[in-house]
Design a protein that fits this description.
Blueprint: H1 26-45, H2 48-63, E1 68-72, H3 74-91, E2 98-102, H4 120-130, E3 137-141, H5 148-159, E4 163-168, E5 179-182, H6 197-216, H7 233-247, H8 251-260, H9 265-274, H10 278-287, H11 292-295
Parallel strand pairs: 1-2, 1-3, 3-4, 4-5
Length: 296
């Protein structure tokens, strides 16, 4: 493992605009942090081109049966875990399709294991256990861009011919992935605390990546999540509303179709709009590659 000089990282520098942080009132702290957070939107907007590139490749990989892996340590790793966890209920992805590899393992999600980020060997072992190969895409998340765990995972993925992306807030991060999404958030309000602006920008970027990918895969109709998993009361009611609104039927019929479709919202919408059976609706969706608009 090569030694890294952290002194010149933008994410480690002290922020000249926040030098008086410890002398501020609570209201002053709120105003100061809010001013700094406004820079996040601009940082994400300036990364539009690599974000779009990543969406195309993530969707392409998943369409071919590949998987998406979010790899990170600390806050970055937890953001990857959160993004992976949200995909099944929102888009009905299989648990295997979008995964997170966290430095330190599952327990590090809840209790910090700071030294875990330095273990290149564990990163390689985790990727090997996951079976990362050329059909997959590995998205490394590292605010500094130099986290050994993330860099090792990306190197392993490239060695297996998998597609690679790095999400970082360091414009000088080594190019260890095929494409790098640089979120130029600059020094933090609290020097070195990348759970602040860097993490906020990263969460926004990951939201864009997963949502954009699922749109490309036909899991969205208009701006509605028609592939959701209705496994709670809230989601059941959301599913019924989708059938009612997009199927253009009364609430009572929407509920009947929800039951008849076995909770498959897209199927129920096709049944409603085309007045067909569940099997016929399923065939139409399959022929349309899962795209509701094409099936209709």
């Amino acid at each position: 493992m090569t030694l890294q000089n952290y002194n010149n990282l933008s994410t480690e520098r002290a922020n000249s605009r926040t030098r008086g942080l410890d002398r501020l009132t609570p209201s002053g702290i709120v105003r100061l942090m809010n001013r700094e957070d406004r820079r996040v939107l601009s940082a994400v907007a300036k990364a539009a081109t690599p974000l779009a590139w990543a969406i195309r490749h993530m969707a392409g990989s998943m369409a071919r049966g590949g998987r998406v892996f979010f790899v990170g340590a600390g806050t970055s790793g937890r953001l990857g875990v959160l993004e992976a966890a949200e995909c099944p209920p929102t888009f009905s992805t299989k648990l295997s399709q979008v995964q997170a590899i966290m430095a330190g393992g599952k327990s590090a999600v809840f209790r910090s294991k700071e030294g875990a980020e330095d273990s290149e060997r564990e990163a390689v072992s985790a990727c090997r256990r996951a079976g990362v190969d050329r059909s997959d895409i590995v998205v490394g998340i590292a605010a500094s861009g130099v986290t050994p765990f993330v860099r090792a995972a990306l190197r392993f993925a490239r060695g297996r011919k998998a597609e690679t992306v790095l999400v970082t807030s360091n414009p000088r991060a080594p190019r260890v992935a095929r494409t790098t999404i640089v979120l130029r958030t600059g020094p933090e309000v609290l020097a070195g605390s990348t759970r602040l602006k860097a993490a906020t920008a990263c969460k926004m970027a990951l939201n864009i990546l997963t949502t954009g990918t699922m749109v490309q895969l036909g899991k969205v109709y208009g701006n509605r999540m028609v592939d959701l998993q209705p496994k709670s009361r809230k989601l059941v009611e959301r599913g019924v509303r989708l059938i009612r609104d997009l199927g253009r039927v009364p609430d009572v019929k929407a509920r009947r179709l929800f039951a008849a479709s076995r909770g498959q919202v897209k199927t129920a919408i096709v049944m409603a709009r085309l007045n067909c059976s569940r099997l016929e609706a399923g065939r139409r969706l399959q022929k349309a590659g899962g795209f509701l608009r094409a099936a209709l």
